[in-house]
Amino acid sequence: MLWKPALVAGVFLFFSTIIGPAVPKILHIEIVRVINNRRVFIQKCCSGTPGDCNSTTTPFKQISLLTTKRRAIISTRIVSSSSSKKTIVETTTPPPTTVEATTTTVSTTSTTITTPTNTPPCLPHTCVTQLSLLDASNYINILNYDFSGNWWTAGSNVRTSDYFIWCMNQPVMNVSSDIKFLPGQPDNWQNNEHCMEMVVGTDTPPDNIPMNDVPCDTSYQTRYVCETQAAGCTFPECPTVPCLPDASKLSNSQSWQSNSDGVFRSACGRQYFISKVGKNWNDAQTECCKYGKQLLSVESFQELSCLAAMNKVQLKDTTNFYWTSGTNNGFGCEFTYGFCGSRTLLYQNFTNWQSAMPDNPLTERCLDMKMAIDPTQMTFNDQKCTDIRNFICEGSQPDCSPTCPSKSTCVKQDNFFNSKGELLDAFNYGRYASGTDKTYLFYAQAKVSWAEAFNFCCTLGMDLLSIATDQEMQDIFNLNNNNILLEYNSNFWTSGTQLNCNFHFNYCSTGTTFFLNDTKWNTDQPDNINELQWCVYSHFGTAASYSQSAAFIDDAPCSDLNNFICQTPKMCTSVPCYDYNCTVDPTKAAQVTAMSAAGWYGASVWTSGTDVGVGCLNKFGWCPSGILTTSELRWGAGEPNGPYSENCLNLEVYRGDSSATTFNDMDCSKSIRFLCEQPLEI
């Protein structure tokens, strides 16, 4: 059923001065308004002839409009006034408010309540209640019903011909002077109009409900309105569902471990469990309890905004509907919505209803929510509580932290280093580039898993890459893009991970947190598809200029095979040299001493120079001191010219021409003569 805007406007005119909540549910009598502590609703008050019903437990009676500030919901049954009066329950005792919503039976003891004989102003009548009428199917949703027209009231002047009284009030009361009649009425035409009807919609408020006198007997029939005593509905009825926490699911919640039934997400400082399986409304609440949580309560638009922001990055769900703990359960609570999880009413100025909803407050008494990435599009709808929906649980849980490899497992390979702690044979492990305050090792010889990359960097005394800022991302791009020795177009592992803590990212090398809104993420990433993409890689390619397509980060399964980048704060200030245990050979020492400066011929000889060191490419130094060469070093034409292949320094000697003697880089594995030196003894 849908709302009818024009019709609602008409009803509003009638109820424009009325404000009031509703009451808890009793039996199956629904669609209720409570005004001035009276419950008014569409109901065939009683039915049939005296004695044909079996219960008098339902305290409803025909409406008495003491003032225009009354609400009513209407029966479609057309009866005469006398017939209607014969089916009225004569009692003003408020009904019990603790009967469960599932109650479907009432006492079968036959009881008849008769109007006391000491009430002569009104016609005598007998009222019984018919069980078959105590069902919501007999009531009409006023929002979908044309309220205009004629309706019986309890007004009568059968015994008081010069004025009208309300027969259903105890004690009987006169119709007040603010109740207006149609022009020229009452006229008691043919001395046969002693009962009072209201005629709705003949004018504008407050004159749109005038009265008219009409015959009381079966010669005139129309619809009627019933009312009863009632307290207000302060909050809908929430079901009592079994709450049995499940140890395994509690553990999932505490460790933020998603499972096949759903995933855990963080937003607004709370933990949410978003189910992948459907349940009815009651079962969804039971399932939330197993995780130590409650079915979702949306207490503010801010919370909707948090959920939308989380969904935009983490779930990207724009189609599914999820149960919330929202309901209007309870007799008289049809238009009072509250969240059972938080015991809060629908927040003030709530506007997130789905179009034309709620549309059936009688039978669709539970609220679901459509997920969206825009909080204004996260709309609510009333549904049958027995429908199957996914659901969202929420609760408090200390935030998780991603799991990083233990520092104790990081073992530096001592035999890779000299006694100064400098890495030897550094060029065996990849190619280097130095930025402002870091040196990066690009390992592209093979592709390995994230854990292997992390451990490999550790063995070299380095850390797997952590990209602290956007500027660092751009710097690494420029180092790769502008260096002919690099120019990679590849994925490289970083130390970033969200392992065991969905969408909470840390760089394990530095402990630095980075976030979902980090501008380095690739488009629509991260997404952790199927809860498998726990590790973060970087991509660097070549391009005319820095852009997201050429440099970005993304999440992927940790078992994927990628290249990787190690980093170290060390810059090249000296070259690493091997530790030599030098034993002097006296014979060879004597030969050196006897050498004459004369008789040198042109030759290529080794020196101790090398550039094999972290970040030392083309920065040569002398061993064993490691001191870097100066700018006065005379290089041969076009030298050095063999980076990563010619990393040792030789001297090209030309006899008798010192100006022609130059240095050259050469493959360290070559076999040539060498030149030794020692300080002179003076």
Helices and strands, with pairings:
Blueprint: H1 5-14, E1 32-35, E2 38-41, E3 61-62, E4 74-79, H2 81-86, E5 113-114, E6 126-127, E7 149-156, E8 165-166, E9 173-174, E10 195-200, E11 211-214, E12 222-229, H3 247-255, E13 262-267, E14 270-275, H4 281-290, E15 294-295, H5 301-315, E16 321-327, E17 338-339, E18 344-345, E19 366-370, E20 380-383, E21 390-395, E22 431-434, E23 439-448, H6 450-459, E24 463-464, H7 470-481, E25 490-497, E26 505-507, E27 512-514, E28 535-540, E29 551-556, E30 562-568, H8 586-593, E31 603-610, E32 621-622, E33 627-628, E34 648-653, E35 662-666, E36 673-674
Parallel strand pairs: 7-12, 16-21, 25-30, 31-36
Antiparallel strand pairs: 1-2, 2-12, 3-12, 4-12, 5-6, 7-8, 7-10, 8-9, 10-11, 13-14, 14-21, 15-21, 16-17, 16-19, 17-18, 19-20, 22-23, 23-30, 24-30, 25-26, 25-28, 26-27, 28-29, 31-32, 31-34, 32-33, 34-35
Task: Describe, in plain words, how this protein is organized in 3D.
The protein has 682 residues and is an alpha+beta fold. The protein is built from eight helices and 36 strands. Strands 1, 2, 3, 4, 7, 8, 9, 10, 11 and 12 form a ten-stranded mixed β-sheet that branches. Strands 13, 14, 15, 16, 17, 18, 19, 20 and 21 form a nine-stranded mixed β-sheet that branches. A hairpin with a 6-residue loop joins β8 (165-166) and β9. It is rod-shaped, with a radius of gyration of 44 Å. The protein starts with a helix and ends in an 8-residue tail after the last strand. The model is unreliable at 1-77, 82-120 and 131-145 (pLDDT under 50).
